[in-house]
Amino acid sequence: MRKTIIAGNWKMNKTAEEAQGLVSEIVNIHRDEINNGAEVVIIPPFVHLSGTYSLIKNSDVKLGAQNCSEHESGAYTGEISAGMLVSYNASYVIIGHSERRQYFGETNALLAKKVDIALKHNLTPIYCCGETIEQRNAGEHFNVNETQITEGLFHLNADEMKKVVIAYEPVWAIGTGVTASSAQAQEVHAFIRSTIAKKYGNEVAQSITIQYGGSMKPENAAELLAQPDIDGGLIGGAALKSRDFIEIIKAAR
Ligand code: PGA
What is the number of the ligand 1 atom nearest to the C-alpha of 234? Predict the structure, then answer.
């Protein structure tokens, strides 16, 4: 059985005090109301990792980071290494979110290096892929996702590949309120899984968690999460409100 993972990507939101309040609410409601086996991950900005961990450490909630450097350590002002993240108790790291690709020029070749360094430090990469609206309208969405997956991940061996989580996030659905329909999302998820199966075989492909991301919210989560190849969600806006985030977790099978 694949793991269902519901992860809240806070992006660049929340002050120290706000972060503490939100994490406390999530942990408390999660403990009292949820027991469905879904793995829950909070992915705050770097500065909140330590404070978040101190509030979740006695719970089942896990910690993630939004990015890491492709370098081990050294003179890279402003960067954060995978080793540092592990030392702050992170278990997951988002690699190649579309905002990093779009605003920070991150390429598949660079992301492949970040995936490697994350795995080396036993951090689970949440590798993001997804097409723009122009690419979808031009019928290029399968190709675009295939290229992102192939160039970012297919240098891994099968054992390494099994440790990766993939997040399909159509760029046109992120932060827009427009969600991919469950059929549109399922179609791409199944395509990604079959692309992995062609390279690594069915056993590896069936073992990999593929999350959906892009305006997932309490109203649409159950239908998306009920699709056979959708194994969780990477949640932006709705992860900033404890009730909405909890309702999405509850919608997981
Ligand atoms: P959204 O963001 O839920 O606000 O659309 C998802 C993401 O970017 O991970």
Answer: 9
Half-sphere exposure of 211 (CA within 13 A, CB side): 34
Q: Whose CA is nearest to atom 3 of ligand 1?
A: 236
Cα(75) to ligand 1 centroid in Å equals 32
User: Mean pLDDT in runs of 10 for the chain (253 residues)?
Assistant: 95 98 96 91 98 97 98 98 98 98 97 98 98 96 98 98 98 91 97 98 98 96 97 98 96 85
CA dihedral 28, 32, 38, 40 (to 10 degrees): 0
125 CB less than 6 Å from ligand 1? no
In 10 A of CB 43, how many CB atoms? Answer: 28
